[in-house]
Amino acid sequence: MTKRDYITGEELGAFELSQLLDLAGELKSGRREGAGAGELAGRSVALIFEKPSTRTRISFEVGVAELGATPIVLRGEELQLSRGESIGDTGRIFSRYLDAIVIRSGSHEALAELAVEAEVPVVNALTPRHHPCQALADLLTLRERFGDLQGLRLAYVGDGNNVARSLAIACELAGVELTVAAPDGYQLEQGHGVKLTEDPRLAVSGADAIYTDVWVSMGDEGEAERRRADLTPFRVDSDLLGLASENAVVLHCLPAHPGEEIAADILYGPRSAVWDQAENRLHTQKALLRTLLGE
Hints:
Layout lengths: L13 H16 L14 E6 L5 H12 L3 E6 L11 H11 L2 E5 L3 H10 L4 E3 L7 H15 L6 E5 L4 H13 L2 E5 L13 E3 L2 H5 L4 E4 L11 H8 L6 H4 L7 E4 L11 H4 L6 H20 L2
Parallel strand pairs: 1-2, 1-3, 3-4, 5-6, 5-8, 6-7, 8-9
């Protein structure tokens, strides 16, 4: 089989994305009955984390194990990468031992090089440019809440970062209308059918869901005060949510900072789908591994 990677989300077509979400739903509903158990028996998957991780590490490690494969969890400082070995050589060696590589990296370029040199599938578990596994969980959560993704209106409010970029790719494939509201200097680039605005109220007007992310991501700590000042008008609170549709839900990829990008009563309130969204990382990533490694 020709090996397949999952780097930006563009590697899937619309039909295959829909099939993957179907599979994720089946794995979720049948989890306690052992759905998917043993389907990747005898396989091994490297989980490399150069950056701190909670949801991504746990969901991938549990997911790999539930599929019957062996997860090999590695921190960046544990590898010879920390002593100057190239990412290409790392990929060549890993390909001799493992069946897939999942990596969270501080360099999208390094991850792309790894994918070129590795002979086994490489999965992007987050880079500064993309977070495509998160987007899969986002879509599954919206589909659970609304039934059909086609024509849904999603407003992303805040920093047009890696999460927003991957969301734009996934929404285009799924038929979701995405609007990104961000201030000048934080806006996502044009493309993938996304609508751009600097007005958060315009973005969320009549939306079916509102999505936000932290204002200070890993690596942005030196600009924390400036970023908070610039992004304060984009906080998701009851006033902003009141402009969305009556049944609108709120999404956040976590970790959250209640009182900054999202009000505490919204994050923990009845219209929050955040915790389902976090759980769905497990189910969509299992479906992704099945898709990439299945016969």
